[in-house]
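Human: Respectfully, please carefully check these tokens:
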Amino acid sequence: MKCPAPVLLLLLGLAGTRAAEPSAPIDLGEELGYVRIHSSAEAEKVLGPVLRRDAALIVDLRYPTDGLAHYEMVGQLLEQHPTGKLLFLLVSPDTPPRAVLLVQALAARSLVLGATGSWVPAQHGVLVAQTAAADRQAYDAFETGQPAAALIAGKIEKDRYDEAALMTDFHGGNPDPLPPAAPDTAKAKPAADGAAKPVPTDRVWQRAVHLHRALLAIPRQG
């Protein structure tokens, strides 16, 4: 299947991206940044430089180490995010609903995304079809050295499921258009000795990137 041009550009832009330190910001191209925050102690140091950029931002809040203090600090910092720029907040089934509400109340222009079982607001929230175990596996894979490009590329099985198709689903009343089914790792054949293990796809991170690309494409279609 021919890779849609916007997705191809994304993959080319990320091809040389190595997995940075978990909290180091990543430039995903097309004025989109990604940052992963683990604790309130590192929030200001990590978010400060990113918020000075006039760009959209994905903030990964899925598995913090210090509870609500983390979310309150991040929310206060995100109040400085440039007006009119997209802000995506990634949460997990482990994220307490009150923490999600706390951050979103402080970061008003945000869209919350989380794997199946996560609590997301009825408005401005998207559940992504990925199990909690697969979500954590993909999250941890980045921490242990997998490149961002490998984790969010994922194979799109549906023909022409590009930004236009995604936004058609989204505006047609389906805020959670399903991605292709992830491989059933329980039924997969074990890898031969020495063979590379399959790289998990981070569906939540991937969905945020795809939505950003789709929303960028809307003015060009007008």
Summary: Residues 128 and 207 are 8 Å apart (CA to CA). Residues 1-22, 156-162, 180-191 have pLDDT under 50 and may be disordered.
